[in-house]
Amino acid sequence: MTTFRSVFDAPLIRTEFDKSGINTQFIPTIWKYVIQNPNCEWRDIPSLPSAAYSLLSSKFKPCTSAVDFVSDSTDQVTTKLLIKLQNGASVETVIMRYDSSLGKYAGKPRSGGLRSTLCISSQVGCKMGCKFCATGTMGFKSNLSTGEIVEQLVHASRLSPIRNIVFMGMGEPLNNYTALVEAIRVMTSYPFQISPKKITVSTVGIIHAINKFHDDLPNLNLAVSLHAPVQDIRCQIMPAARAFPLGKLMDALAEYQKKSGQKIFIEYIMLDGVNDEEQHAHQLGKLLDTFEVVINLIPFNPIGTLSQFDTSGDDKVTIFQKILRNTYNIRTTVRKQMGQDISGACGQLVINLPNKKSAVVASLTDIEDLRP
């Protein structure tokens, strides 16, 4: 049986068009038509060379995935999409809507208005095994193809105009490096045209991938799931950290920052009695003292009976934030929670198909709001 590939698998469709002597400049036109016409047939697309119609019909589908289930939070701010892949597996992607005119920055009202951020998955499951994250309980199932990554944006953009993208969904993006890079290149080109500065890739710290990240994807935001200021605590809560010693990770980040000239976003989940004491704040401040960073403190979201951690109290979070801000002069934010009523809070992404209830990474301070 023929396995059809997604038309958004950019390297493959370009190769096939080249082999058939078809001008690859038609590809963005095809993408735009597919986005605007969800149930289209290839023959519906006007003005393509005849060879393109037969090639598309024999090897490609407009979308290889389908939206299986949609959940909206009661405040309509967060929408969760359960997406079924061609192989029968499922992933989730989350739309988070923000009003950027709310609140103040530097004592002045913020500019802007409504915008949507899409939280995208890069793998089915994850092999990193972070003990505070539900995805780790699934184990690793498979990498998503370039097309399957892009199709999450295709499905979401039919529900809401997407301006920002964060790779903070299921999986470790830098463990699916080639597909990630190709997908982002599609997202930043016509017809999507998402600005690279509005795309953030989050990683636990895959050093060899960080070393080439800026060369392959200039002007993107890099977020690092640090979660502890010393190696032994990191290894306790993030088993994969054993392969990426903190000293070597910090060296890689220093080199990345030197090359890119960009701030690095540091994600730090607050676990009561584990990494949230005042001494940890001082250790973190000293570790990051020579870097240009924004730290995002993340309230821990329990994952039902799986939880072996407790959420840090608000007072602890406030003290932690103040130490980093006042003693070390590091911009430090606390992540806003969104979509908890649809199990859409950070670190809870896990697929549970029988009753179609699942949990999704969502809830973050919008990356635009973290810009200096």
How is this structure best summarized?
Helix 4 (146-157) packs parallel to helix 5 and helix 6 packs parallel to helix 8. 29% of the residues lie in helices and 21% in strands. It is built from ten helices and 16 strands.
Write a structural description.
This protein has about 375 residues and is of the alpha/beta class. About 30% of the residues lie in helices and about 20% in strands. It has 10 helices and 16 strands. It has helices at about 10-20, 25-35, 50-60, 145-155, 175-185, 205-215, 230-235, 245-260, 280-285, 315-325; strands at about 5, 60, 65-70, 80-85, 90-100, 105, 110, 115-120, 125, 140-145, 165, 200-205, 220-225, 265-270, 295-300, 330-335. The strands form 4 sheets. It has a 10-stranded mixed sheet, with helices on one face. Helix 9 (about 280-285) packs parallel to helix 10. The chain is elongated.
Query: Residue-averaged pLDDT, rounded?
Result: 89
Output the radius of gyration: 21 Å
Beginning-to-end CA distance, first to last residue: 53 Å
**Biggest sheet details:** 10 strands, mixed
Helix/strand structural class: alpha/beta
Largest sheet, spatial ordering of strands? 3-4-5-8-11-12-13-14-15-16
Low-confidence stretches: 353-372
The gross shape turns out to be elongated
Helix content: 25-40%
Strand content: 15-25%
The sequence of SSEs as H and E is EHHHEEEEEEEEEHEHEHEHHEHEHE
Total count of strands:
16
Q: How many helices in DSSP terms?
A: 10
